[in-house]
Every structure is written in structure tokens, then in C-alpha cells.
Amino acid sequence: MKFALKEIFIGISLALLVFLALQGFEITPIILIGALVLLFKFTMDNRSNSRFTLVEQKKAGASVVPEVDFSDIGGQEIAKREFREALDFIRLDKEVRNLGIRPLKGILLVGPPGTGKTLMAKAAASYTNSVFMAAAGSQFVEMYAGVGAQRVRQLFKKAYAEAEKANKQTAIIFIDEIDVLGPKRGKNTSHMEYDQTLNELLTQIDGITVNQQVRVLVVGATNRIDLLDPALLRPGRFDRIVRVDLPDKQGRLQILQIHAKGKPLAPDVDLAKIAQATFGFSGAHLESVMNEAAIFALRHKRKQITNHDLKEALEKVMLGERLNRNPTEQERIRIAYHETGHAMLSERINSGSVASVSVISRGNALGYMRQHGKDDQYLYTKAQLLERIQVCMAGAVAEELVFGERSTGAVSDIEQAAKIARQIVFAGLSDLGVVTSDLPGGILARTIAQIIKEQETEIYNYLAENRGRLHSLAQKLMEQETLSGEQFRQIMQQSA
User: Fold this and answer.
1) Residue 324 forms part of a structural domain
2) Alpha helices by DSSP H, 92-224
3) 15-29 confidence digits (pLDDT tens)
4) Domain that holds residue 38
5) 354 and 473 fall within a common domain
6) Is 315 noted as a catalytic residue in this protein?
7) Which of 91, 146, 237, 450 is buried most, with the most CB atoms less than 10 Å from its CB?
8) Cα-based torsion angle of the residue sequence 153, 156, 160, 166 in order, rounded to the nearest 10 degrees
9) Are residue 92 and residue 195 in the same domain, yes or no?
């Protein structure tokens, strides 16, 4: 009815303007005044619109607490323990008051995207039986002066109101991408809107006291803590910083098991092997792997998710979807030798490390060699870094050995090898010894080139000694298009 009345009013206004124009009246001033009125109304509506979300249960009138528990979050045992310890200051209200403890006002969750920071904030609300308010940092940023500060006030005001309405003593305000809301002040010289918004947030956090009827906890999330203003991070505001890092192998297994619930898995599925092969994956990546595996099973009309589905899903998430590129026969032969070179050096350095080799295009790659390690590794010696450079450059060297020249297919390999060589230099592991960040670019470039050149010589000698094996493996890869790690190693032994 409201929209119908609005449409009727607009129709009558337009008809009146047409009538006045036909009667010879000058309607331009009326149109300008109307446009100004509409612009003013839009601005005020925009200022009054809080655009914040309130997480509610399905039943009307139920307590506004998310249905997420810490048991639903895998791979973050240390972060969860540290987070729960901080949340106990809210749950143990009587003990906190008796000891005169200043209440925790803010907890900052820091970590890469997809590691579960939002889930942890929702689980915190469930753990403390609190009202949960969620907002993103971008919701506070506007071109109009004072709008961001007003929205901060509205957010806190709404949190108090909803907690009283739900008869709750605590409320959690979750601000995702808080680095957008609270960047270091003084960087935006065009106007002071960002600074005003941050100042209002600091004021609201400072206003939280232990004697309030409703206790509020602000939970922020960011993957760029270096961008935050120091005033946000001082004690008394964000009192705890909880690291939510990428999961280790055991953590990845827990995440896979959580996302496997409700999915029928075939007897041949080994989630531990998938966890081993996904070093560097976040929780979001692992959820995507399980979801894509279910999609592959559906596509092939299977009632259970097989190990083959999981491997296909892993390669899709890691490398991208299969493409309909049709390289020429000569290009396919070159790709086969390129990927075989990568795989042979990988097996030479670390037996059993090759997971699959393929000449099928995925993402930006015309072919690929996928590795998996036995254990997660965080520290590398110089010898190990040089071995990684050998694996990177083996494809290009194999092309040079067989065809007499290299191709543009090694561009990304060269970039990766140069990155590793640069790491060797700045870790003090090169012939230059310990260097600083102001090392002249010419010296750095020559040192990186020398490191890579030395490894290329070793690669060339190894492949030349095993030329027959290289030909056999590349030919088999051409025939089958994809070889599993087991198949590759079997052919490699037979052609010895």
C-alpha cells in the first residue's frame, strides 16, 4: 500500500508538470527544486540506514544467538583455546566484579582469508549466550562527512537495545575487515571522514564499563593488522590479539572430517592423504574441495564420493577448471617433456613426492605436475631451497635438452625460481653472506642469475644421463594424458 501511494503521487506530479508546461508555465525551477528535494531525501535515508545485520534464530522472539559452536570449527585448536579464555571474562561476570578486573573490551582476530574468523566470532556469541551484531568495515565508509561516525553510534546503540529486548546481559559486535574502518590516521588528506569514524569507534569502546547492565564485547577481524591505527591496538581497547592461521596437517584433517559430515564417502576415500596433499590450504579451500568432490560424483551419477572425485576436486581448487584448449601436436609433445622434467627432478630429490603429472590444461597452465609432501615444512636449508629451484627449472631444461631451445611455458617457473633465489640471498645463505634490504639491484640480479644458472647445469647433466628414461616417461604421458604418482614411479623404474 505504501509503494502504491508513492506511485500514485509520482504519477499525479508528472501529470501536473505536463499540464503546466502545456499552459505555458516555466517548469524548469520546479524540476530543479524537486531534484534538490529528492537528493536531500536520498542523503538523509542513506545516513539513517544502518545496514547492519542481526543474526537471529528461526523462531520469532527467540534469543538472537548464532547456531554455531566451537566444535563446528576445525584446525584452530590453539586459537579457539585462547579465544575461549578471553571470553570467560564475560561468562564469569561475578568473579570478574569481585576481583575488580577491568572488562575486556575488544578481541582482534588476525589471519589469512578463509581461516574461520567469522565463524569464531559467531561461536563466541553462542559460547557466551550473547546477542550477535555483524558489520563490515566498508559499511562505515561514505563520502558524506559524519555518516561513518553516526553508523558506529547506531551499531552500538542497536547492540544495547537488542540485548535488552532479548533479555540478554551480553552482546558481541563483530566488525569484519576492520582495517577499512580503522586505518592509520592522517593518510586520507582529502577529508577527515575516515578519522572521524575511527575516533567515534574509539570513543564507543572506551565507553564500555563493567557496571553496565549490558556488557558489550567488540570482536574485529582482519588479515592486514599492519594497516590498523596504533590507538586501536593499545591495552584497554583491543586487549587480545588472537592469531587464526592456516591449519596444519592434523587441523586440515579435522576440517575435512567436519565438511564430510552428511556426505556419503566410498570405502577407498582416505581423508588423511587429502590433508597431507593440501599444505597451505585454508578452511574455505578445504570446504571447497569437499563440495567440488560431491559435484563431480553428481556429474558422474555416483551415489558415493570416491577417491578419484576428491583428487579431481583437489586439482580443480588448486589449479582451476579443465579448459578446452587444443594445443598443436608439437606443443603437446613439448608440454609432455616439460612436465616430465619437473616430475623426474622432484622424484630424484624426494622420492614419492609426485602426486600426478598431466598435459591437460587447467587454469593458466597448459600442463602441470602436482607434488605432495610427507609433512608440513616451515623452515628450509640452503640445500633444500636449491633443490626447489631445480624442480622449478627442470621443465625448461628438459625442453632445451630435447628441442634445442626453450619456450615461453617456463615464465612462471622462472618467476618462482627467482623468488626462491631471492629468499636465499636475503636469508644470508648466498656467497654474499648477510645482506640488508638496501642491497644494490645490480648485485642482487647477478647473484640470483648465478644461483639459478648453477642449478640449471646440474639439472642438464642429470637429464642428459637419463635421456632414455625422459623419452619413455614423456611418451607414456602423451598417450595417457595424466599419470598418477604411482604410475609415474612404476614407469620410471621400468625404464631405468
Assistant:
1) no
2) 93-98, 117-128, 147-165, 178-181, 193-206
3) 776 666 677 777 777
4) 2-48
5) yes
6) no
7) 237
8) 120
9) yes
